[in-house]
Amino acid sequence: MRIGIIGAGAMARALGGGWAAAGHEVRFGARRREAAVELADAIGHGARGGSIEEAAEFADAVLLAVPVDALDAVLRSTVLDGRVLIDCTNAFQPDTSAPDGTLNFVLAEDAVAERVAATVATAHVVKAFNLCAAEVWAAEAREFDGSRLSVPLCGDDPDAVQLVAGLAEDLKLRPFPAGGLHRARYLEATSAMTVGLWFAGHDSRAMFPPLAAASAARD
Ligand SMILES: NC(=O)c1ccc[n+]([C@@H]2O[C@H](COP(=O)([O-])OP(=O)(O)OC[C@H]3O[C@@H](n4cnc5c(N)ncnc54)[C@H](OP(=O)(O)O)[C@@H]3O)[C@@H](O)[C@H]2O)c1
């Protein structure tokens, strides 16, 4: 598949690098063209770098790997009609009410993926990959305590969700559907909470029992 990656930072490297290694045609696009070319050269596997416009034009699916406050300008200046848009962004900002020395996060806005979809109405937005650090996506490890690392996906277009599920599987991750795009805001909020707890030294994973013990059966 032809995958465009907008951004040349940590998430671009982690996910774009994984997809290139899995055999996809990956093109990085960045506001500093040389940064995209440098990243593509470092990754190899036929990956190429260029402008944001070139990456978007080339691709069937486009990963948005830029800060949230850059999204509006990027989306409004790039032709993305009909593309599957993978939104991994988090609108984190430091929680200034946290005690001194504690790094907690709140969200600068509540529903980034919905805003992306409203800005590019003809694209098919799927929220994915926002829950874990770039280093996690880039790492080899995929099994933890006997469970495959999973990627919840929120999107309204079943074909787009299916496509992104395949891309998650290509990274040896387990995708699962998490509802329509209106639920992406819960993934965004989940990230703010869990990442803040991790930064505070708590094991967010330990908050949850395994499925068999979750008492999740309908009465
Ligand atoms: N890093 C993580 O662990 C992680 C995990 C989950 C989700 N995310 C989300 O993924 C997104 C990307 O994060 P990242 O860690 O990859 O960031 P990053 O390493 O800082 O890279 C950001 C990329 O966006 C580009 N950029 C910044 N401002 C821009 C603008 N106004 N217009 C165009 N391009 C711009 C940067 O270009 P320059 O080099 O020119 O500044 C850089 O290529 C963020 O929304 C973040 O919340 C990150």
Characterize the structure shown.
The protein has 219 residues and is α/β, with parallel strands linked by helices. It has a single domain (2-207), classed as Rossmann fold (3-Layer(aba) Sandwich). 37% of the residues lie in helices and 21% in strands. It contains eight helices and twelve strands. Strands 3-2-1-4-5-8-11-12 form an eight-stranded mixed sheet, sandwiched between helices. The termini are far apart. Residues 7-12, 30-32, 35, 65-68, 70, 73-74, 88-90, 130, 133-134 line the site of NADP nicotinamide-adenine-dinucleotide phosphate (NAP).
Give a brief description:
This protein is of the alpha/beta class. It has one domain: 3-Layer(aba) Sandwich (Rossmann fold).
Q: Could you name the ranges where pLDDT drops below 50 across 5 or more consecutive residues? A: none
| Overall pLDDT | 96
Q: Please provide the count of β strands.
A: 12
Report the top-level CATH class: Alpha Beta
CATH topology grouping:
Rossmann fold
How would you classify the helix and strand content by structural class?
alpha/beta
Radius of gyration: 17 Å
Please indicate the count of domains.
Answer: 1
What general form does the structure show? globular
List the helices and strands and how they pair.
Layout: E1 2-6, H1 10-21, E2 25-29, H2 33-43, E3 48-50, H3 52-58, E4 61-64, H4 68-76, E5 84-87, E6 92-94, E7 105-107, H5 112-119, E8 124-127, H6 134-138, E9 143-144, E10 147-148, E11 150-155, H7 158-170, E12 174-177, H8 184-199
The structure holds NADP nicotinamide-adenine-dinucleotide phosphate.
The site of NADP nicotinamide-adenine-dinucleotide phosphate has 23 residues, from helix 1 and helix 4.
